[in-house]
């Protein structure tokens, strides 16, 4: 098993929190030996215990989405380089991260009304908690655009939490690694985004 057991999480609720906070995921499938990866928002339906998403029908990956086909969805949480300088003990450089891999089988949703409902539910989820916009199922634009997407669910889910958080360090160093992860993900992101937008 990789990573080592102390970097594995079996806490489903924590994995679900990663999925909720970071819904832009990597959808990984394969067809005739060719791998396909697309970055799309994917949400978790706690009532049905399924992942739900939709993809542009013009995407070549659609050909690999057939009922019963295997798929893996990768959700990436915060990550950061951890310098040995933060520790109280002698350590080597490392990289900490939160990742969740969810594997299951594809179930295509061909009914346009069902596809529209998944879009409404996803929009409601993404608009939370302010709900400044509400997608209407009866919106005429939905009728025009729904045929350009392929909605689908992923069922029979298997969860893997890969939480590398310096769990193998002493309590003080573990705390310092947590603080570094928080600091690097709050201080650097604004400057990075400003740079990209220039």
From TrEMBL:
Pfam families: FMN_bind_2
Entries under SUPFAM superfamilies matching the protein: FMN-binding split barrel
Descriptive protein name: Transcriptional regulator
InterPro entries according to UniProt: Split_barrel_FMN-bd (IPR012349), TR_PAI2-type (IPR007396)
Origin species: Cochleicola gelatinilyticus
């Amino acid at each position: 098993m990789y990573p080592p057991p102390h970097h594995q999480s079996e806490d489903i609720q924590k994995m679900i929190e990663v999925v909720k906070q970071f819904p832009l995921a990597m959808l990984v499938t394969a067809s005739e030996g060719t791998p396909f990866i697309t970055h799309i928002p994917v949400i978790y339906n706690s009532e049905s215990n399924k992942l739900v998403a939709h993809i542009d029908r013009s995407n070549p990956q659609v050909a690999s989405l057939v009922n019963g086909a295997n798929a893996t969805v990768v959700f990436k949480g915060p990550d950061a380089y951890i310098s040995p300088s933060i520790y109280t003990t002698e350590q080597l450089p490392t990289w900490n991260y939160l990742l969740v891999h969810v594997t299951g089988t594809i179930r295509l949703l061909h009914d346009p009304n069902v596809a529209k409902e998944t879009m409404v539910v996803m929009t409601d989820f993404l608009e939370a908690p302010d709900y400044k916009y509400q997608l209407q199922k009866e919106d005429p634009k939905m009728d025009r655009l729904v045929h350009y997407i392929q909605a689908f669910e992923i069922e029979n889910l298997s969860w893997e939490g890969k939480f590398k958080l310096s769990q193998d360090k002493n309590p003080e160093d573990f705390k310092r690694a947590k603080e570094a992860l928080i600091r690097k993900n709050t201080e650097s992101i604004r400057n990075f985004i400003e740079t990209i937008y220039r």
